[in-house]
Amino acid sequence: MRKFPKNFLWGAATSSYQVEGSNRNCDWWQWEKRVGKPQSGNACRHYQLYEHDFDIVKSLNHNAHRFSIEWSRIEPAEGKFSKKELQHYLNVILALKKRNIEPLVTLHHFTNPIWFAKDGGWINQKSVERYLRYCDFVVRNLAKHVRYWITINEPTIFISHAYLFGAWPPQEKSLLKATYVEEHLAFAHIKAYGLIHKIYKELNLSSPQVSIAQNVMSFTPCRNSLKNRLAAYLRAKVYNMGFLERISMGNILKRMPLDFIGINYYSRQVVALKKLGPGNLAMDVCEKKHHRIAKNSLGWDIYPKGLYDVLLSLKKYNLPIMITENGICTDKDSQRWEYIHDHLRYICLAMKKGVKITGYLYWSLMDNFEWDKGFKPRFGIVDINYKTYKRTIRKSAKKFAEVCRTGVLR
């Protein structure tokens, strides 16, 4: 039996584009239609059904819920803010508060307004200024109801998939452009961190908790050779820590512009270099079945110990850590509960080693639109019937609900 702290935050996460539906002013909506990718369409109709969904959240004993605000709804045209959409998100927050569920609000979760994307998106030097204007409008109007803010979700994934691999809009494959985007995202977070704290002071509110949600992985050498160990070390340093170090170095206060560290953990990468070279150090993985291990439905390794290893590596920052995403897509719900249980077990072990962990948010509350993969991957503890939009609580959700209720993992 393992006990969690009494004030531990338990819940699940979503993102607006993946669950709301009909985000027509967004770059992803336009891109899906242009390139023939799976279309998000009505998604889960969460925009209309959020009250019902939060009743489910409450029934599952969650005391926290992470969601994102869709920038393209709030600012559909440059400099023109929608009071109607702001009111919608205020209603979402109040619906959570009414159920005694702590809202964790993400300001940027991959998607951008069409006008922003058409003018260069995050490559444009004006991108930071535009993002801050949006942040100021949202935070100033919602601050008194929100304590936790995530400025940017998974900046490393956004940079790599959109500007290096060419898999997501705008489908660039340019190291130079990726470097510009990283610089702008880092500066955007640093400035937003200061702005949010400034707004709370101006409004005479208690200090907020502001962070990013950084995707992290475990990097495991396939064979215990020097070159594989070197590559695994470098990847962890660049991929897991690079953006954290970047925002620390870019901050004139010379301290981490984070009140806690939000991390998203799913899987590991098995490193097997074919030869020594910059590209090999960065990309080579084991293509043989040397490591027999369970995988999710997208073929990602299920490796709970990797979360423990990453948590210990983050201890050096001396900041509280929140698991802002951790989840599995699978058609076997028993595998989903096993995944949750085993990751929680390793979180307990990390806390025993002195890592301060303040919360765990499963990804995702419900099955949803999984970006370029469409609707096939099933991550939710709540099943979605995409024809009727009926919600069905899975057994894994009920088992997790008991941990949330008692704070005890058996």
Question: Your description of this structure?
Answer:
By secondary structure, this protein is an alpha/beta fold. It has a single domain, classed as TIM Barrel (Alpha-Beta Barrel), CATH 3.20.20.80. Helix content is 43%, strand content 16%. It contains 15 helices and twelve strands. The strands form three sheets. It has an eight-stranded parallel barrel with strand order 2-3-4-5-6-7-8-9, surrounded by six helices. α13 packs parallel to α14. The longest helix has 28 residues. It is globular. The N and C termini lie close together (5 Å). The mean pLDDT is 95.
Question: Key terms for this structure?
Answer:
43% helix, TIM Barrel, 410 residues, 8-stranded parallel barrel, alpha/beta
Secondary-structure blueprint:
Elements: E1 2-3, E2 9-13, H1 16-19, H2 27-35, H3 46-59, E3 64-68, H4 71-74, H5 83-98, E4 102-106, H6 114-118, H7 127-142, E5 148-153, H8 155-164, H9 175-202, E6 209-221, H10 226-240, H11 242-249, E7 261-271, H12 278-283, H13 304-314, E8 321-325, H14 333-352, E9 357-363, E10 382-384, E11 391-393, H15 395-406, E12 408-409
Parallel strand pairs: 2-3, 2-9, 3-4, 4-5, 5-6, 6-7, 7-8, 8-9
Antiparallel strand pairs: 1-12, 10-11
